[in-house]
Amino acid sequence: DLMLTRFRPTVRLRLTLLYGGLFLIAGALLLTFNYFLVRRSISLDSAEVHKRAEQLLGESIGPLKEEFSNPDHLVGGRPFREVLEEAQLEFVDDTTRELVAQSLIALSGMAVVAMALGWLVAGRVLHPLKEITATARRLSEQNLHERIAMQGPHDELRELADTLDEMLRRLEAAFESQRNFVSNASHELLTPLSIVRAELDVTLADPNVSTDELRAMAETVRIATERSESLIQRLLALAQSEQGVATKSRVGIDELARDATAHLEPLAQRAEVQVVSDLEEAMVQGDRVLLERLVGNLIENAILHNRPGGEAHIRTGAENGRSVLRVDNDGSETISEQAVARLFEPFARVGGDRLQRREGFGLGLSIVRSVAQAHSAVVDAVPRPDGGLSITVTFPGT
Q1: What is the SS3 assignment for 228?
Q2: Mind listing the pLDDT tens digit for each residue in 174-191?
């Protein structure tokens, strides 16, 4: 049992045995067909039959003329019919026996040749699999950039290699995104802590610190801790949205937009942005908490990334049986098509400067995309000619 466990026939060996077995079966069928064909096609009135008859009688019978016209004629004391039939049977048996023997020898030799050729062909056909296996074994987090890059005909193995290359590309992008996410999250969490530590060090180093200075330090520490708390909440929201929707209920997107607009009104006033709402009924099935995040982040993003005196337009309604949320903002700069796609990545900001806007973390649109995917919704973002974005979230029909 241990020997059987250790011996595992390779695909190449199995293919070789399969080729050889099929060849032997085909050869045996061909041999059987030839056997019956030869038995039926042997000429029974040939000189060989005449010779066999003489051997059976033990004497020369000369030319056969009267015997053929009268099969009961006695030849050598025996009826010619009996002698002829016996000679015919012996001749056929000897001929077919020799045919079978020679055919078996030829079939055995050809089977060996066929299996050898099958072994070589199987090795050549399966060689790309060795390259795929070797590449897969070499891969790790550090060299995901390697590809199989198989050349040759576009067959099943080439399709497999191309599929694995595409999977490696996605894995590389995912690992790179994860590394960037961890790096950016660490930076964002470290910045408030550095501010708190600096304020504490300065205060502790001054033996004559005043009450006003302590209050100023406390206010700075409070703002830094609030920022850390806000970041952690957003990271948790992002993680929660990526886990999918466990329970669903009927939620009105127009209602969520109305509540978010009222909640963010102080922020809009400070940013000198006017929020214009056109809210019609838009019902969806989903997680209310996650959908609140989606709607709130879109409206907050439209306010924060706007210009003084600009407008943020919020629209909800139904189109073609689907609920739609559309948020437009004027924006302070024109955004390229390439930059729009990057904005949905975690910690991404316009211009790529993480310190450009201290009001946000660059997680808003990442959360929007993740929540939308959890609800099978589609997010479309289009840059506006005069600056800003037009973002549309289309939910599936209820």
Answers
A1: helix
A2: 777 677 667 666 766 777
Residues 345-366 have a mean pLDDT of 57
- Mean pLDDT across the stretch 347-363? 52
Hunting for tokens 């019609």 — which residue is that?
Answer: 280
Residue tagged 């011996």 (tokens): 7
Which amino acid, one-letter code, is at 170?
A: R
Residue 357: pLDDT band by 50, 70, 90 thresholds? very low
Domain ranges of the chain: 2-138, 249-394
For 127-170, what is each residue's pLDDT tens digit? Answer: 778 877 887 777 776 677 777 777 777 777 778 888 888 888 88
Tokens of 59: 């004497």
Decide if 19 contacts 118 (C-beta within 8 A): yes
Task: Output the pTM of the full model.
Answer: 0.53
Superfamily of domain 249-394: Histidine kinase-like ATPase, C-terminal domain (3.30.565.10)
Look at residues 270, 266, 377 and name the one whose alpha carbon lies nearest to residue 326: 377
Q: Please say if the pLDDT value at position 308 is more than 70.
A: yes
Instruction: Detail the DSSP E strand segments found in the chain.
Output: 74-75, 78-79, 249-252, 274-279, 283-286, 311-319, 322-329, 378-383, 389-394
Band (354; pLDDT cuts 50, 70, 90): very low
User: How many angstroms separate the most distant Cα atoms in the chain?
Assistant: 151
* β partners of residue 16: none
- Interaxial angle between packed helices 211-242 and 288-304, expressed in degrees from 0 to 180 and rounded to the nearest 10: 130
Residues 6 or more apart in contact with residue 184 via CB below 8 angstroms = 346, 347, 354, 362
Helix and strand counts by DSSP (H, E) for the chain: 12, 9
Strands (E), 307-387: 311-319, 322-329, 378-383
Q: Which residues contact 84 (CB under 8 A, 6 or more apart)?
A: 49, 53, 67, 71
Two tokens, residue 240: 């929660």
Six token digits for residue 150 = 């198989």
